[in-house]
Write a structure and sequence with these properties.
The chain is an all-alpha fold. The chain has ten helices and no strands. The model has no long low-confidence stretch (mean pLDDT about 90).
């Protein structure tokens, strides 16, 4: 197995270290989501994973706060990567009517966002603990879906299916609306219904129509 960062083959020690770091992050994510960052002590975290304090600090010298920022960054990277993949699969269906494409996109986005509710619980509760640089690192990843959506709308306009507009602004409006709607559902322990996805897709298709 090769390291993604260096391309070098990982030794058994490297693999063990990676597994232990992942173990720490998974336990921390669960505890932070359940109890909140401030309510979880390093002692409780170490007890949950059966690891000595010194070993945890070996992997995360910055302690609990470094673990928090790593949990958020890792989850964000995985979440955005999954969303972009969904977008690419839908956008590749060139013969799909715009309304159907938007409905699939909304449904796929809802599925990806609800897969990791722990991430949202932690982010909503603990975002204020992050400094500006850390917030920018998280927010910077979110530009990928917006850019993909903007490019998709531009191509549909070139094909004469929708009018020309500020595609960046249109994609921001659309995705912000959809994400807000999904998060509101999550906070109420509800799911986005297929009929709601269709209604939203029809609204935007009509809004962008020539």
């Amino acid at each position: 197995m090769e390291s993604k960062q260096t391309g070098k083959r990982m030794t058994s020690r490297d693999l063990q270290a990676a597994q232990r770091k992942q173990q720490i992050l998974q336990a921390a994510k669960r505890l932070f989501a359940e109890k909140g960052y401030h309510a979880v002590s390093m002692r409780e975290l170490n007890k949950a994973i059966g690891m000595a304090d010194a070993l945890t600090y070996h992997y995360f010298p910055g302690g609990k706060f470094e673990i928090l920022t790593t949990v958020l960054q890792t989850a964000q990277e995985e979440r955005i990567g999954g969303i972009v993949l969904v977008f690419r699969e839908i956008f590749a269906k060139t013969d799909l009517p715009l309304t159907d494409a938007l409905a699939e996109l909304i449904t796929g986005l809802a599925q990806k966002l609800t897969e990791d509710q722990a991430y949202f619980q932690i982010l909503i509760r603990e975002r204020s603990l992050l400094n500006d640089e850390q917030k920018e690192a998280l927010d910077g990843l979110t530009t990928l879906p917006f850019e993909a959506m903007s490019g998709y709308l531009s191509r549909r306009a070139e094909q004469g299916e929708i009018r020309h507009m500020d595609f960046s602004l249109a994609s921001s409006q659309f995705l912000a609306h959809i994400v807000f709607t999904i998060i509101q559902k999550l906070l109420r322990n509800a799911e986005l219904e297929p009929s709601e996805a269709i209604k939203l897709s029809e609204f935007y298709a009509e809004l962008w129509a020539k």
